[in-house]
Amino acid sequence: MSRIGKKPIPIPDKVQVNVDGSAVTVKGPKGELHYRFPSEMTISKEDGQIVVHRPSDAKHHRALHGMTRALIANMITGVSAGFQRTLVVEGVGYRAEMQGKTLVMYLGYSHNIPVEPPPNVEFAVEDRGRLVLIRGIDKQVVGQIAANIRKLRPPEPYKGKGVRYEDEQIRRKAGKAGKGA
Q: Going from the N-terminus, what domains does the chain have, and what CATH number goes with each?
């Protein structure tokens, strides 16, 4: 049995979960999420917990079992606590700033790059434009937006200039060897 899939998911006090066949709706203080899961998985609400069952031990069902449980757990965490990714902007003249709800990135190009937030996602800039915080209730959307912003100017290996995740380690390369005779 899947180690992840067989764990029941506790429902916090402030969160309401509605299971309608394979569709799950989760409401909490930060918002509401809705997702339709594969119909093979049986999702039930028992004793204030969500339990996911699979029909067989086939490889496909084992994979869906753990994934379904993890997605429901992420939905519950998202509407109760939310998710956050932090990006670090490094480089001379590289910075980020907010203009209303829009994030504007200055990354050494001849133009600035505006990034509009999707619904249920908000941006914040700290440390004089060096830290970009991306907050939201959907873990997948927050991660994808962070990856898209990082892709605007990935960190380079010589000086480390660019946009990187806060916990990311950049492997540095040595520069050109000096002229010596």
A: 9-80 (3.90.930.12), 83-165 (3.90.930.12)
